[in-house]
């Protein structure tokens, strides 16, 4: 369920949007506000995933509200609604990163498309955040797992049931609210527990000793294998931090800042992983690994994000042809650029301009 905050200075419009949003099973209108200031005050003590806001309102307009939300609640996605003569507002809103601009009177099909686009971006954001967390845990604990495998055979056998039981108790209180994110990370997590897969007997031992399924919450042995070791991995992080300090982590974060700066300056050019690694003076394998750990995305995902952001701005603020925009942001093949653009924004460049042209002006 995704929660929507609806902001409009006209009560009848707010009520109408509440009814329309609540028609969809995956969305709920949790609150309304008559201007941006009231909306921000509400958000200080409450939660929403999606903002649906009018552009022109007293005290704080919709654009200022979106700008504030981008800074204070960066996970939220925003949808603008307004009248036909607000072309400049629409353009500025899209440049702020809003999902869509919907012209009043709001059509159900337009609202549904915008909500689904917002939901897609939120799913992607949450998956990336969770993947980043899990990859940090897995990579930080690699040394601990290796040392455990070096123990004499009997000692491994004796310690493994304790590992499973500790993890089992942790999962009972921890996994329920996070299972959706963990499922999204299943493929990333398998490698971290491959050694445990070879000890199937432990599960039978648990069932006999405790007269219960190893994972009554999930009832899924495959997923449990993917989650086994979470507790030990958290201990490993603490151990490595206490012995090795934060120097490596801080160094990695500085590297990420350098990589992002390099990409933002050189995105119009053809870039390779080796070229980026050389520019920031770190090895290619380390670069790929630490970037994904710290950001939750690959370097190529980030490069695409930068290029698409710049492409949208060029399309909305200049008269450049599609092929010229493609070349300006680093794509030699305009057809490939068009495909990437539509995949990223959910609409092609013509559709984007058509949405704005409803306002009575040409982009």
Output the number of helix runs.
19
Would you identify the CATH H-level superfamily of the largest domain?
Answer: Response regulator
Strand order of the largest sheet: 2-1-3-4-5
Number of domains: 4
The CATH topology of the largest domain, please?
Rossmann fold
Instruction: Name the average pLDDT.
Output: 71
Q: Based on the coordinates given, report the CATH architecture of the largest domain.
A: 3-Layer(aba) Sandwich
What class would the helix/strand composition place it in?
A: alpha/beta
The low-confidence runs, each spanning 5 or more residues with pLDDT under 50, are 137-250
SSE succession: EHEHEHEHEHHHHHHHHHHHHHHH
In angstroms, what separates the terminal alpha carbons? Answer: 35 Å
| Shape designation | globular
Total strand count, please? Answer: 5
How much strand content do the residues show? 5-15%
CATH domain class of the largest domain: Alpha Beta
Q: Quick one: biggest sheet?
A: 5 strands, parallel
Radius of gyration: 25 Å
Question: What proportion of the residues is helical, as a percent range?
Answer: 55-70%
What is this structure's SSE topology?
Blueprint: E1 2-7, H1 11-21, E2 27-33, H2 36-43, E3 50-54, H3 62-72, E4 77-82, H4 87-95, E5 100-103, H5 108-140, H6 142-150, H7 153-174, H8 179-184, H9 186-189, H10 201-210, H11 221-227, H12 230-244, H13 247-266, H14 273-280, H15 284-295, H16 299-317, H17 322-328, H18 334-345, H19 349-357
Parallel strand pairs: 1-2, 1-3, 3-4, 4-5
Helix pairs in contact: 2-3, 5-15, 13-14, 13-15, 17-18
């Amino acid at each position: 369920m995704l929660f929507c905050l609806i902001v409009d200075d006209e009560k009848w419009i707010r009520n109408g949007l509440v009814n329309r949003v609540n028609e969809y099973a995956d969305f709920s209108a949790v609150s309304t506000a008559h201007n941006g200031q009231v909306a921000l005050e509400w958000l200080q003590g409450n939660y929403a995933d999606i903002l649906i806001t009018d552009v022109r309102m007293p005290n704080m307009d919709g654009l200022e509200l979106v700008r504030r939300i981008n800074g204070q609640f960066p996970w939220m996605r925003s949808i603008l609604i307004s009248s036909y003569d607000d072309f400049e507002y629409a353009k500025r809103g899209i440049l702020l990163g809003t999902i869509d601009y919907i012209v009043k009177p709001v059509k159900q099909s337009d609202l549904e498309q915008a909500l689904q686009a917002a939901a897609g971006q939120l799913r992607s954001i949450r998956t990336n955040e969770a993947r980043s967390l899990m990859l940090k845990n897995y990579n930080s604990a690699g040394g601990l797992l290796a040392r455990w495998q070096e123990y004499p055979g009997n000692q491994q056998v004796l310690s493994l049931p304790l590992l499973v039981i500790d993890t089992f108790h942790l999962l009972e209180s921890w996994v329920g609210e996070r299972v959706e994110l963990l499922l999204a990370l299943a493929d990333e997590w398998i490698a971290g527990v491959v050694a445990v897969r070879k000890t199937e007997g432990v599960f039978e031992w648990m069932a006999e000793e405790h007269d219960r399924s190893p994972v009554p919450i999930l009832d899924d042995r495959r997923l449990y294998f993917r989650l086994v070791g979470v507790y030990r991995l958290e201990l490993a992080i603490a151990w490595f931090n206490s012995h090795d300090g934060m120097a490596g982590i801080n160094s990695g974060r500085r590297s990420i800042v350098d990589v992002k700066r390099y990409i933002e300056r050189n995105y119009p050019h053809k870039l390779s992983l080796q070229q980026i690694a050389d520019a920031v003076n770190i090895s290619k394998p380390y670069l790929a690994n630490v970037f994904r750990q710290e950001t939750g995305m690959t370097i190529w995902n980030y490069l695409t994000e930068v290029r698409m952001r710049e492409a949208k701005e060029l399309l909305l603020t200049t008269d450049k042809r599609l092929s010229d925009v493609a070349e300006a942001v680093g794509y030699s093949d305009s057809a490939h650029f068009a495909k990437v653009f539509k995949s990223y924004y959910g609409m092609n460049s013509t559709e984007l301009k058509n949405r704005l042209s409803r306002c009575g002006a040409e982009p």
